[in-house]
Each structure stands twice: as structure tokens, then as C-alpha cells.
Amino acid sequence: xxxxxxxxxxxxxxxxxxxxxxxxxxxxxxxxxxxxxxxxxxxxxxxxxxxxxxxxx
Length: 57
Known about the structure:
The protein has 57 residues and is mainly β. It has no helices and three strands. The protein has a three-stranded antiparallel β-sheet, with no helix packed on it.
């Protein structure tokens, strides 16, 4: 099994590729695809996922 990869894009999302367990603060699982982007700016309407809102700056 290969390790997941996490990449922080400049002024944008955090891209996650691979098998990871993503949960909310209470430990409840959050469904996701094998590749997804987490919001890095706090402006997304689809938290914790990036919706491209950072591009509107």
C-alpha cells in the first residue's frame, strides 16, 4: 500500500491523493473521493472541501 500524498498549493487548496480517513471534529467520517482538495483559505461554501472561492480574491 502506498502512502497518501498531501500537497499545499500556493494561495489555494490542500490536495490529498490516496487512502486517508477524513473525519469532523467529533470523529464522524466524511465521505470523499480518492483525490480531493481541502479548503485552505476558509472561504469555501462546501467545507472542508475547496470550491474555488479562493480564486475570487
